[in-house]
Design brief:
Blueprint (H helix, E strand, L loop, with lengths): L11 H12 L13 E4 L5 H6 L8 H10 L11 H9 L4 E4 L4 H10 L3 E3 L3 H10 L9 H14 L2
Parallel strand pairs: 1-2, 2-3
Length: 155
């Protein structure tokens, strides 16, 4: 059973459902089925689509179309600022997942992500410092120092 105290993020199937409903103008009328919309910005290869368990029941020709439509890093079809605005108005934050380059941080900020998930926090802190973006009450210099200390500790 699902614990309602634990927020849920979109599944691959739910991302596809939300995209279809958005494109047909039906998004305002459906239950989103998640508390946060997470977009994996890694490249979507045909191999990744073919091996995705959640898509295993789809015919190969549909998977081939998906490979064509979702190409790019980040996947072009998922870069929809208007969709993100609609989701945020419904109280659903939009997170970009797997951010590991400055270019992808810039894309996330430009496209209107609510948040960024990265395994390279120093990169994110440096980007924020260079653009003079601050999070109150976080001191970015202290955050960078804390990340460096954690990295040293984990070596």
């Amino acid at each position: 059973t699902h614990d309602p105290e634990i927020p849920t993020c979109t599944s691959i199937n739910n991302i596809l459902r939300v995209l279809v409903m958005y494109m047909f103008g039906l998004l305002p009328f459906i239950n989103l089925g998640c508390d946060a919309f997470g977009i994996d910005v890694r490249s979507v290869s045909q191999e990744r689509i073919n091996n995705e368990k959640a898509l295993s029941k789809l015919p190969q020709w549909i998977k081939n179309i998906m490979g064509y439509v979702f190409h790019g890093t980040p996947p072009n079809l998922l870069m929809l600022p208007h969709l993100y605005n609609i989701l945020r108005k419904r109280g659903v934050p939009v997170y970009f997942l797997g951010i590991d380059t400055v270019e992808l941080v810039h894309v996330a900020v430009e496209k209107g992500a609510t948040g960024i998930l990265t395994d390279k926090p120093r990169l994110l802190c440096s980007y924020m410092k260079s653009k003079r973006i601050s999070l109150n009450p976080v001191d970015l210099d202290s955050a960078v120092e804390e990340v460096e200390l954690l990295e040293e500790k984990n070596k």
